[in-house]
Amino acid sequence: MARRSEHTQDQIREMVLNAAESIVIEDGFHALTVRKVAMEIGYTVGSIYMVFANMEDVIMHVKGRALDELAEQLRQLEPCKSAEQQILALANVYLEFAHRHFNRWRMIFEAIKDAPVPEWYQQKTREMFLIVEQPFRELLPNPSEQHQAHLAAQALWSGVLGACVLSLNGSLGRVGAENAQVTVGLLVKNFIAGWRASLLPANAVPPKK
Hints:
By secondary structure, the protein is mainly alpha-helical. The chain folds into two domains: 1-52, Arc Repressor Mutant, subunit A (Orthogonal Bundle); 64-199, Orthogonal Bundle (Tetracycline Repressor, domain 2), CATH 1.10.357. The chain has nine helices and no strands. The protein has helices spanning 9-27, 34-41, 45-51, 55-75, 83-100, 102-110, 119-139, 146-168, 176-199. The model has no long low-confidence stretch (mean pLDDT 88). Keywords: DNA-binding, Transcription, Transcription regulation. It holds the Pfam family TetR_N. This is Regulatory protein TetR. GO terms for molecular function: DNA-binding transcription factor activity; transcription cis-regulatory region binding.
């Protein structure tokens, strides 16, 4: 068992998060317990609670790290020729992240408790959605209706999330990442077409693709 003097609290905090993340990657979110984390880092359970309020606090920070990584990959995406292509590319990055980091990605929306979500975590979620909202703003016929871009981003990403879950957890059979990409592509293209049409006046001519 490690001695407290061997590491600073910041180091123990990082060790806890790394160990918790490794457990989720290897065995899934439901295998994550405070005792297993303590065994992994060679410290007592009490030492973990010196740097985190409780196990829910640990879980939120592990989820936050996954969100940070996903958001960074979305930001690094090269600009596309059109907003529609950008949205599709963002969805594909999301799908790829879900495929490569399935247990960590699934933990983001499965590890949800009744306790209030911390403000810092809500901010991470808002920042990620802002990346998705930007190309929707470019498609708005009326730039003053920014809330429509926000609603569209949330609605589409809920659909993409559902497609990812069904495709990657075997609910639709062993479709694999390639076929999942086709499914997500159809969802994105049809959603954008329907959303843009809904924003036009009744007598307006739909925009060309």
